[in-house]
Design a protein that fits this description.
single chain; 8 helices; globular
């Protein structure tokens, strides 16, 4: 799971709140998907700026995350570096895209068994809020 960090906790909550207001969400668009929205919050870039910043180098966050290493020197590298600076590494990117972090899922299952759909904005909001809650508990 991501490293507990106040900046990450705030970014997750801010992203979930923004998604809850009805902003554009599109799982197949790297600037408007689960990770794309978190990157928007962290970098203050728009969805279009995110896509342009990598010259359409990647179609999905998970593609790059699976090949990620500290020396790739890809255009997407700076975005991954900014995520890592607040405690969110490449494995967390994959888990966020697919809503698959076992710690988050266990927490949700204990309250209300459900199946999370990685391309459903309501499930993404629930997942991000739950992850922020877990990370905040780890701080105390």
């Amino acid at each position: 799971m991501a490293k507990s960090n106040p900046l990450l906790i705030n970014a997750l909550r801010e992203t979930a709140d923004r998604l809850n207001t009805g902003v554009k969400y599109e799982w197949g668009h790297m600037g408007r998907c689960n990770c794309g929205h978190l990157v928007q919050t962290i970098t203050k870039m728009t969805d279009i700026q995110i896509v342009e910043s990598v010259d359409n180098e990647l179609n999905e966050w998970t593609e790059h995350a699976q090949e990620y290493c500290d020396t790739t020197n890809s255009k997407a590298q700076s975005l991954f570096d900014q995520l890592r600076e607040i405690g969110f590494d490449y494995e967390d990117v994959i888990k966020l895209e697919y809503l698959s972090d076992k710690k988050v899922l266990r927490r949700l299952d204990s309250e209300n068994p459900l199946y999370l759909r990685n391309n459903n904005v309501d499930d993404v909001i629930l997942y991000m809020d739950t992850m922020a809650e877990i990370l905040e508990e780890e701080l105390t």
